LacI family transcriptional regulator
Amino acid sequence: MANIREIAKLAGVSVSTVSRVLNNHPYVNEKKRAEILKIIEEQNYVQNSNAVHLSTGKTMVIGVTLPLVNNQYYSSIIEGIAAEAVQHHYKLMVCQTNNNPEQERSVLHLLKNKKIDGLIMCSRSSSCETLNEYAGYGPIITCEANDTTSVSSVHIDHYQTFLIGMEYLMKKGHRRIGYCIGRKNSFNSQHRKRAYYEKLRSIDVTPSAEWSFEECLTIQDGKDVVGKLLQTEERPTAMIVSCNHIAAGIIKEASRLGISVPEDLAVVGCDDQPIGELLEITTVSSSSTLMGKYAFEMLHKRIWTQQLVGKKEEKELSPVLVERLTT
Amino acid sequence: MANIREIAKLAGVSVSTVSRVLNNHPYVNEKKRAEILKIIEEQNYVQNSNAVHLSTGKTMVIGVTLPLVNNQYYSSIIEGIAAEAVQHHYKLMVCQTNNNPEQERSVLHLLKNKKIDGLIMCSRSSSCETLNEYAGYGPIITCEANDTTSVSSVHIDHYQTFLIGMEYLMKKGHRRIGYCIGRKNSFNSQHRKRAYYEKLRSIDVTPSAEWSFEECLTIQDGKDVVGKLLQTEERPTAMIVSCNHIAAGIIKEASRLGISVPEDLAVVGCDDQPIGELLEITTVSSSSTLMGKYAFEMLHKRIWTQQLVGKKEEKELSPVLVERLTT
């Protein structure tokens, strides 16, 4: 079996050109690419991960940070990343950070130390200063909008998502609307809350503090919301919820406690998780899997195009309302 | 800020002893461990992943293979692995293999090339020969039973799981029982089918080929099962299903087509996924998260105890019946 040097010799090109073809580098002359692929096939060449490493200086590993591993939203981003990564012979180093900036920094260190070729941060706790600092070492993409000068992002428009959900509920006649989000101070949460308060203000409703539920991450957290709703002085007639798993917990517990959905409590979720369809939850949907796919594409381009490192690019996904039975 | 060498000097121990403490190596004298931790705290020492690497020869990365990333069963195994890994300062390299033995081999190569300290295979397509070959290079744990001589496993007793489900359905009076599983020829599937056929034989029922559904991996696959059930000559009155996501698809589509669950079709799922509770699916439950936790513990012990490499150990998790509304 031929090695990469023999393939290069037979094709009359450099080892790094063969390597670029093997790694689906976007910028190789198409005719040359076809010639090289033909020789690779004739020689029955099987790529050895170490050979790639030596000839390109790449690790063929990208890092992915996420706060917790077993969460449908993050799993579906990773699904999108992984499907693309396999195509391009990349492996993923998945790092659970528990939203701890120190843990995030240890992953950013991997980029600095060239243990990974690039990094996708599904969510982040690090400051913009820290991100800018590390962006000089290699490409970083965040899956939420960020205020840095040099870190690119692919993100869902969470402001628009909550806006659509609020307008829809208001059109249905709701005025006492509560919200339910994950991390209190994340970039995404700030955008969601801005839409929430703007919309309520537009109909002269002053939201009660009792209508806001933050740090909701699990189905159980959703269930707990219902218990708390029962103790409010003026119970909301509708809830807008950042994630369909939390919405599922709310609906389930409401049913157990005899609160009718949507008659007593309307619920709008905000993602495209399968649980939304299974439980017929009205949702403002964006594809987190697609976001992961785009994030990998953007990262891959930057890994192989040195000039793009540190040049900010932003891609925003727009949400769509899917009306079902919970409103 | 002190480095690892200064910590070692202050504690009067070797660098590798400090490193063992930092990495929660199980076999360090407790008194010495306490002394070293005190100095680490006093010196405000922050671990640098590269320093660990240099002083111990470890990468502090473990590999995890799984066929596809966005699948609740595998996500929940990884949740268990990741929670333990974070405690022990390990990072995960998660590799999606699409059940392709070549892709698995490229991950096994990472073990051979010391790019990872150990490997957990959530499912596997490689032969026992291949696994035995690579087990010499470092610890491997499979999350399904295996017939190798040297690869350890932590696994759910899938034979027992299907046995419990079948006995329960038979006690309810069902005789025409179908099954629904994932990969046709996986080790787990073989055990499930053995229990299925044994139990039907015990009541002199010859199962129809139309009652068996294999390669079911998504909710949509579950929905498709119902369409096919409608075309059978003798429709089963009950289904035993290897995973609650597939069961959810079946229940959902049955409801859409006017087939009453459980009256026209009883459904038993076989895992502990939240969707089971949300849709009130009767299930034979085992904790895949716990399996992941045990797999990491077993692997970690083997990474740090050279004598255990290649010595087979097996840990089996027993399932429990949880009766809900679909039977």
